[in-house]
UniProtKB/TrEMBL annotation:
It catalyses: (7R,8S)-8-amino-7-(carboxyamino)nonanoate + ATP = (4R,5S)-dethiobiotin + ADP + phosphate + H(+); (7R,8S)-7,8-diammoniononanoate + CO2 + ATP = (4R,5S)-dethiobiotin + ADP + phosphate + 3 H(+). Belongs to the dethiobiotin synthetase family. Pfam families: AAA_26. The lineage of its organism: Bacteria, Pseudomonadati, Bacteroidota, Cytophagia, Cytophagales. Substrate binds at residue 43. The keyword Cytoplasm applies. The active site is at 39. Keywords: ATP-binding, Biotin biosynthesis, Cytoplasm, Ligase, Magnesium, Metal-binding, Nucleotide-binding. Pathway: Cofactor biosynthesis; biotin biosynthesis; biotin from 7,8-diaminononanoate: step 1/2. This is ATP-dependent dethiobiotin synthetase BioD.
Length: 237
C-alpha cells in the first residue's frame, strides 16, 4: 500500500486541492496512465452519497463515477459535520479508523497504476486527537504535491508547509500554485519567485505548476503535470 500513490495536500482549507487533484488525474488520463483518485476523509457531506470531492474529481476528469466510487472504496470515511475529521467523528460518537484508508488504498493500487490521494485541509489537520495528516504522510513516506494559492497569507503558509515536510523527510515532488483569485499580478509574480527560492533552499525540485481559474469543471483545459510526474518517477528509482 502507498507504493503507487501521490498525496495532494494544501497549505490550508480551500486552497484548491480538489481542483488540482482532478486536473492532475485528467492529465494522467491524457497520457494513457490508468489513474484513480482517493479522498482521505470527507466531512460536511451526505454520508449516503458519493463524497463531493470525488464527484468534483470525476467532473474535472470528464468521466463517469467509477465503481470504486459507488462502493465507497475511494472515500471510505465520510462525516456529516463540516469540521476537522477528529471533531466530525466525535460528534457522531465515532473515531476515525485509519486502517480503512489504508485498506482502500491497497485495493485501489491493485487495480490502478497511480492513485492520487487528496488530503483534508492542511498538513496539521487532526485525523484523530493525536494523529495529523502530516503524521499519516510521514508514516507511509508518500511523495507529496503541495497546493498553494494566491490568497493573502499564502506565502507564510506555503513556506511553513515546505519547512515541516522537509523536517519530517517527506518527499515533495512539486508545488501547484492556484492563481484564483488572481487579484494582483504583482503578488502572483513575486510569490512564484519566493517559492522558487525556497524550493531550492530545501533542495526540492523547483517544479511549480500554475493553475488558472477554472470556470467550468467539465470544460477545464488539460494542464501539463509532466515535470511533477517525472519528479515522482525519479524518487522511485
Amino acid at each position: 500500500m502507498f507504493n503507487n500513490t501521490i498525496f495532494i495536500t494544501g497549505i490550508d482549507t480551500d486552497s484548491g486541492k480538489s481542483i488540482v487533484t482532478g486536473l492532475f488525474a485528467k492529465w494522467l488520463l491524457s497520457q494513457n496512465i490508468n489513474v484513480i483518485t482517493q479522498k482521505i476523509i470527507q466531512t460536511g457531506c451526505d454520508t449516503s452519497k458519493v463524497a463531493e470531492d470525488i464527484v468534483a474529481h470525476r467532473e474535472i476528469m470528464n468521466v463517469d463515477l467509477f465503481k470504486e466510487d459507488l462502493d465507497k472504496t475511494t472515500n471510505p470515511i465520510v462525516f456529516k459535520h463540516p469540521a476537522s475529521p477528529h471533531l466530525s467523528a466525535a460528534l457522531e460518537g465515532k473515531t476515525v479508523d485509519i486502517s480503512k484508508i489504508e485498506e482502500s488504498n491497497k485495493t485501489l493500487e491493485d487495480s490502478y497504476e497511480i492513485v492520487l490521494l487528496e488530503g483534508a485541509g492542511g498538513l496539521m489537520v487532526p485525523i484523530t486527537e493525536d494523529f495529523t495528516t502530516l503524521d499519516f504522510i510521514e508514516k507511509h513516506k508518500i511523495p507529496t504535491l503541495i497546493v498553494s494559492s494566491s490568497k493573502l497569507g499564502s506565502i507564510n503558509h506555503t513556506l511553513m508547509s515546505l519547512d515541516v515536510c522537509t523536517t519530517r523527510n517527506i518527499p515533495i515532488i512539486g508545488l501547484a500554485y492556484n492563481e484564483f483569485p488572481a487579484n494582483d499580478p504583482i503578488i502572483l509574480k513575486d510569490s512564484v519567485k519566493i517559492f522558487e527560492r525556497y524550493l531550492a533552499k530545501y533542495n526540492i525540485p523547483s517544479t511549480i505548476i500554475s493553475i488558472p481559474e477554472i470556470k467550468s469543471k467539465h470544460s477545464s483545459s488539460i494542464i501539463d503535470f509532466s515535470s511533477t510526474l517525472q519528479n515522482y518517477y525519479d524518487l522511485k528509482k
